[in-house]
Amino acid sequence: MKRLWYYYLYILIIWGSFRYFVQLPSVIEELWFKPVIWIIPLFWWQLSMKEKVQMFGKKWTASCLMGLFVGAMYFILIRRFNLTGLKWETNLLGVVLATAVTEELTFSGFVAGYLEKIQKGKWINLLIVGLMVSVIRLPILMFVYKLGVGELLGVFLFSGASGVINAWIRVETGNVSGSVLARMGLNLAVLG
Description:
Elements: H1 2-21, H2 26-48, H3 60-79, H4 90-118, H5 122-135, H6 138-144, H7 149-173, H8 177-191
């Protein structure tokens, strides 16, 4: 468990510092730097493990259907059927995809799978993932976007709930692809 917390602190400090001090356009940060900072350490960690964390199980169809349904629900809840102002730019779609893949492979895929291996208690593991998903956003929300307490609490609760739901899809199906699809629906609604 200690190694998981070291990895999480690494992401929190390095990614938070990068977003605060470097401040490149979001497209460059999300498409190029985020996958390198987040995924490469996970890749090496996974290679060093005797018993690997399975992120892509056999239930592809169930996972994808659940992900599409949850992604559509995120989109409908956030957009409330208001499609005006929705832009389908290549950069936006790249950021939506890169962010979904990077964050869901990390949290729903690896972290949820790792927690399943080392401790019992599905719901406590899901809550841990949700808390991790929420806290990782705090540095950028507080120091770059300078959100107020009410807005910060709203984003914290919403991102935590979506983190729990997306991790639940992965835990139920054993496949992270549905979590990625759900997150793409969420990102499209928020960023579009």
